[in-house]
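This section describes the prediction task in plain terms. A model, or a person checking by hand, is given the sequence of a single protein chain and must write out its three-dimensional structure as a string of tokens. No templates, partner chains or ligands are provided. The sample shown here is typical of the held-out split.
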Amino acid sequence: MAMSLLRGCIRAKWSGTLQQNNERFTGLTCNNRALYPKTLQPHLLAAKQIGFPSLSQKTLMLTSTNSAWWDYFRPRLGPFTPAEKKGKHMMLASTHWKLERIVAISLLGTLPAAIISPNSVTDFLLVTSFLLHSHWGIDSILQDYVAKYIPWIQKVWLLVSILAMAGLLHFNYNDIGASRALLLLWSIH
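The expected answer:
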């Protein structure tokens, strides 16, 4: 990665320099712009080259805050809107994670119960827990990685999740149900 940054520096006709200070790598700079994290352990760097021969031994610490390329790809680290800063619009993070774990573990019992004893109660439990689990998982991905580029994507995902829930509840109530449909799907040769 550092070599590709250095090559990009050379292609752009910038002067790239490696600076070492008291056996510590202090960063790769081009025109006084830091292009590489400033804190690396010296034993992680190969002699006379920029490389990471023992990357699995230690974790690199990224402390460069003035690097534009790192800031562009950095995931969301905290709340940004005033409502998110107040935190009154949703659950606490610890409560949310506990509830996600409970729903994920409940799927381990709900799926076999729905297959062994297909009835309306297990159908509704299966559909509800599966949709909650999938909604929270995909919503976390969208919030961390996609919302930065497409801010309205979470509203679309919420609408898709509500429509999926309504469709599956309608299927459970007016048709054979999710567990019997799963059994029929598995019996097809």
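For orientation: Strands lie at 16-21, 24-30, 33-34.
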